[in-house]
Amino acid sequence: MLLHHVFGLFTHPDAEWAQIRREHEKPLRLYVAYVLILAAIGPVCAYISTAHFGWTIGAGQQVIRLAPDSALQLSVLTYLAMLVGVFALGYAINWMARTYGALEEDDAANGVALAAYSCTPLFLAGFALLYPEPWFNALVFLAAAGYGAYLMYDGLPIVMDIPRERAIMYAGALLTVALVILVSTRVGSVILWNYGFGPVFVS
């Protein structure tokens, strides 16, 4: 099972990336056995905390909760956005491969693998949503994004088989793509909210 890579990416990432390259899993299997499972952590935890625990802004303030239907709707949309985001980043990695001297594949297996495994810290950070305090969640996800960026940089020369010097520019370009994907999801959220998919709060 591909989930055994989770521990290795935190303890010995270089060796784990080498093993991931040797496995060369097809994107569909990688999605079914890894991404679909880990990407669900954040949305499930967010649903539980926002619909049942609630959160406050400031001391002594009223607890804010989302209506269960609204929380479920937003969690499902977030989950779908995560799946699309990982897929888009993986294909961007593959699309840019030839520019940086790597092999461009027809099925983008290495690119999708690199994107999926680099997002592992962000997937696991979803557990922090069980404690729905904005400042705490922001710190956890900031740390997870930082380690995810490091994993991307560390894995690029190994998985894509390029010199480490080229990986710096490659990683910078991919960071830009990731930011574009992030902004696109934010814009998509605003559009969906205008069509009635916005949060519904309960006291």
How would you describe what is shown here?
- Helix content is about 70%, strand content about 0%.
- The model has no long low-confidence stretch (mean pLDDT about 90).
- A two-stranded antiparallel ribbon has the order 1-2.
- The radius of gyration is 18 Å and the shape is elongated.
- It has helices at about 5-10, 15-25, 25-40, 40-55, 70-95, 110-120, 120-125, 135-160, 165-195, and strands spanning about 65, 200.
- The chain has one domain (about 10-200).
- It is mainly alpha-helical and about 200 residues long.
- It is a multi-pass membrane protein.
- It holds the Pfam family Yip1.
- This is Yip1 domain-containing protein.
Helix content: over 70%
Low-confidence stretches: none
Q: How big a fraction of the residues is strand?
A: under 5%
* Total number of beta strands: 2
Spatial ordering of strands, largest sheet: 1-2
Using the alpha-carbon principal axes, give the shape. elongated
What is the radius of gyration?
18 Å
Number of helices, where a helix is a run of at least 4 consecutive DSSP H or I residues:
9
From the N-terminal CA to the C-terminal CA, the straight-line distance is 43 Å
Please write the string of helix (H) and strand (E) elements.
HHHHEHHHHHE
The biggest beta sheet reads: 2 strands, antiparallel
* Helix-strand makeup class: mainly alpha
